[in-house]
């Protein structure tokens, strides 16, 4: 038994019971965020998983990026399904642009309206908008992103059609062109007459194919929205920390377009198993049935609740209040006004001071030693986070395949092992510090840091305040009880009281640490590790007590086992989800250049026999333009045949001086109707630009480029302005470079043979000098 316990261990059975309790709390917390197992539903007014799975299989048989033949087939199928329900869908066709100016294109939104029982009674009555996008990225089947949400809308409409009407009208938008720049949503906002009726939005999009359906982004001024969300879906997985983090990220969804128009709403997604995201593994058969059913049932719950509300109440004034909110097992969604965050933080700070003062009556607590404990805790957080990330970066160097690991979920065993090692390191360091600083001084030192974080976050990022307020409150209450009752550190009761105070934080933090790892991946491993270390600081007395009663080698063995399981799981993942080979065919007829290109680090000549032994790696600025990022990439290159794919056609229509500017108008056409057409203006700063009268930029930009998706057959008109003086000086370098991109071999390329099972792209390039 000495292998497990030190000779001085007094509470072996209590120790085992406490470890069992901690593990049980962690498993309970993790299981609480997973969707329930799917159940059979036989009524016509509920979501039908079998029907949804069948529909999803049909719309994901082929890859279907915007403008493709497969995309048109999906659109026709969806229209037929909506008509079969008894609805009258419309196709809203328009040319739209992304507000950042990087994309534009012809989109075909599918819109349909389910009339409510109060429709027409009040001209100001608002409608509820339900949205998902039906396009996919070129190399994906689009099952999770976002076909599963599209078929959930079909099933939701079927169920609602079979029941009494909702009070509000329901508008459903199956948007086009989301993947290339939110084009369908932008087009609806810009030109559809129903936009003026929209009072609230529910958007569903996904970044994985499993896990809970999370509400990760509300609109600002969300207090009323969150209150109603808690009523509509009491067990929803969400928290305002996601909202604070997402606001700081550059990510966009269709929801963004409406949010910027002041439309209140909620944004939902599943994010687990990112191996599916934007890859060929985004297939219908890999979607979690539990997640698919949870999404469908949640969609109905939301519509049945918000469909009965006065949606004008959700239109927030300019300074409307946000909520602090978080999910907690059994209780559901806890929420309160964000204005309460700072007062709560101040009250907890007062409680910390009172607890410190009362503890000093029964134990020696030196202020300077406590501050030293706080400083050591800060240094430990930084050191552990930094070293953990560096250790993982070293793993990347030893195993380069991990750099292309699309699925962090297979690495959760690695995460477990890393966290256990960090817990041991942290605990042993705290034990070492007890030679100079007492355990209580260390505990209150970490409390001091927690109070500082809480006050800062409550003031600057109130949505994240719950993460520090409530765990600290319950731990302080356990400290206060120990001080008042003067319970000895040598007793098992002492550990159980500490565990009672720590239980809330363990249950709250456990799923968040995992979700951060899933969302950010191992490239940002330091973030969940830092979050875990901050938690360990709060649990310092309990951790030291555990390591006094049981040997650290046990935790090391568990950590080693977890690491081994991580290695096995990752190896199995790579075998089941191999990274597809990439191949490009690039033609530049003006230069009489026809090339095969492969971006892989290592060239597999068995898969790509056209490269032969003469292949070489080199950069190709002549093809991509020296201003394009790809001009610095190294490609394996080999001579290719002339596949007779037509190059884009560029015709200068006008060139005139307008004051201190020179305006050039060009017509651009894609003879073979490419999937997308990239337009670059080289050698000069572009002051303004528009395509089809859609303004793309009005501020000066170097290296300007934009992409047109689903190019109209008749082509597009590009209008741009440059400085007159700069044009005269640098006109020898001024060019318009246009690149047609195809993700399947065009019909005109009859002599182009491409190996099966690879990610293929063909490009033709045309360049004209601006005289």
Describe the structure.
- With 771 residues, this protein is α+β, with helices and mostly antiparallel strands.
- It folds into 3 domains: 12-32 and 339-575, no CATH class; 52-321, Aminopeptidase (3-Layer(aba) Sandwich); 580-771, no CATH class.
- The chain has 20 helices and 23 strands.
- A hairpin with a 5-residue loop joins strand 1 (90-97) and strand 2.
- Helix 1 (12-32) runs parallel beside helix 15 (492-520), helix 11 (367-398) runs antiparallel to helix 12 (412-433) and helix 11 packs antiparallel against helix 16 (526-538).
- It is globular.
- It is found in: Vacuole membrane.
- Belongs to the peptidase M28 family.
- Keywords: Glycoprotein, Membrane, Transmembrane, Transmembrane helix, Vacuole.
Q: If classified by CATH, what would the architecture of the largest domain be? A: 3-Layer(aba) Sandwich
User: Low-confidence parts lasting 5 or more residues at pLDDT below 50?
Assistant: none
Biggest sheet descriptor: 16 strands, mixed
Mean pLDDT: 87
Distance between the termini: 88 Å
CATH class of the largest domain: Alpha Beta
